[in-house]
Amino acid sequence: MSDTFAAPWTLLVGSSFAFSGLFYHLYQEKKKEIVKLKEIPKFQPDHHLLRILKASPQHRLQYVAVEGVIQPDGEPLASQFVPKCYGVVQKVIVQEEWKVWSTIKNTWTNKTMNKKVTNNMVPFSLVSPGAYLTDISVKVQAPMEASGDFLELVHKQRKYAQGGVVDAVLEGISGERPVSKDVQEEMLKVGTPLTTFGEVVLEYGEGIRMQPPRDGRTYVLMVGDHRSFIERNESTAGWWKVLSAFCGITGSAVLGGMIYDACKGQGDRRN
């Protein structure tokens, strides 16, 4: 096998083993993360949680998972664009897309301008799934400080600019022209199953509050129940494992083929 022919295959073998090692590392890290997630105590807003809190030091649990269904503590937020769509957290993003002439590249490039983000929120709590009338709920404090993908896209619209005389003049003078105006609305809707990870505190009386942990651990809000959250992480770990095995097998197969061709070539020269 010539060096010119072997070089790409050598690169493929090295890349395959490198990616196999990377994916296996990600698989191991995800497995460790899943083990830690399963060790976190899980509760629902019920009398069992209330009893645990009353028996706990300082009436607090430093880091636990609480799953429930979102219920507003007062009037919910109404969507600005979708009829009969109500939520407790709302984010509206308005931005303009422009074309800007680049004298260096001698072409038009995209640029986002005049971006405006509006956040609205009303107090809300978690109640046990299927519980319509309950005296136990968990108030969720400072949801905008939490990490996690918990907002759902409910509206997205793009309005293209109508080219006119003013735009043509503006384009000629400044080298810029408007393309579109994008509007996007995201909400955390009423009735959504939600799992929270944080510190739970028993307030005065029998009120329960979920808040950002004081020990520095991550405050997390995730749409879905606790089981589906664990299953999503296990699915991700499974994909890392499959990719690691695929890259390892690919690299081994190509390497085996290269060794076979090299041995065959030496045998042919001896003959």
Q: Could you explain the architecture of this structure?
A:
The protein is an alpha+beta fold and 271 residues long. Helices cover 37% and strands 36% of the residues. The protein contains four helices and twelve strands, in the order αβαβββββββαββββα. The protein has helices at 3-39, 47-55, 165-174, 226-270; strands at 42-43, 60-72, 77-78, 86-102, 107-121, 124-127, 138-140, 152-160, 176-189, 193-202, 208-211, 220-223. A five-stranded mixed β-barrel has the order 2-6-7-11-10. A hairpin with a 4-residue loop joins β4 and β5. α1 (3-39) packs antiparallel against α4 (226-270). The chain is flat and about 85 Å long. It starts with a helix and ends with a helix.
Short description:
It contains 4 helices and 12 strands, in the order αβαβββββββαββββα. With 271 residues, it is of the alpha+beta class.
Keywords:
single chain, 271 residues, alpha+beta, 5-stranded mixed β-barrel, 5-stranded antiparallel sheet, 4 helices, 37% helix, flat
